[in-house]
Every structure is written in structure tokens, then in C-alpha cells.
Write a structure and sequence with these properties.
Elements lengths: L8 H13 L6 H8 L3 E8 L6 H17 L6 E8 L5 H10 L4
Parallel strand pairs: 1-2
């Protein structure tokens, strides 16, 4: 439905992968998903905007459909946002309440 790629897809995906493979990152499920090529990453504009809501929804539908057709362990989907990158935890929760959790 939304075949275009965000201008920062490669950069944001690479940053996420670098973060996951770092020794200090504790989630072994994410590490396993990445190692198996089962980490789907969708780059988006701003977490405090509804701009990408339909793209995220569409991508999640595709992700779950793929899993339904071929179930398996260690699969993960990540929506990564260009910004803002200076949010406190409280501001992040507010942004999600007005941005990604409509």
C-alpha cells in the first residue's frame, strides 16, 4: 500500500542494528532476530506526529501476515523515528499518546 522508502531508512536501520549488536544491549531476542535476518525496520518521520501512522499500520499487517504464513521464533518489528531525539521519558510517553497510539 505504501511502497516508498523513507529518506533515512538506511541510516536509521543501521543505527538500530549497531545498537542491538552492542554488548551492553540486553535483549537476546532482538539480537537473535537480527542475526537470523528477521528484524524488520521501518523508518518514520517524527514520533510525535501522525504522519506515518498508516505506513506503520500497513507494515505491521504485512509483518503479521508473513509470520502467519511462516511462523517461527525470533522475529521482530521496529518502527524507528528521525526525531525528536531529546525527549525525556515523560515527553516520550506523551508523544506516544498523541503520535503512535491513536
Amino acid at each position: 500500500m505504501f511502497p516508498w522508502t523513507h529518506k533515512s531508512q538506511v541510516q536509521l536501520e543501521s543505527e538500530l542494528q549497531d545498537h542491538i549488536v552492542a554488548p551492553a544491549f540486553p535483549c537476546v531476542g532482538a539480537k537473535a532476530a537480527l542475526a537470523r535476518g528477521n528484524l524488520i525496520t521501518l523508518a518514520c518521520n517524527s514520533i510525535d506526529s501522525a504522519w506515518d501512522d498508516l505506513r506503520v499500520h500497513d507494515a505491521l499487517l504485512g509483518f503479521t501476515s508473513t509470520y502467519k504464513d511462516k511462523p517461527g521464533l525470533f522475529r521482530s518489528f521496529a518502527a524507528v523515528f528521525e526525531g525528536p531525539d531529546d525527549l525525556s521519558e515523560e515527553a516520550f510517553e506523551r508523544a506516544c499518546g498523541t503520535g503512535c497510539n491513536r
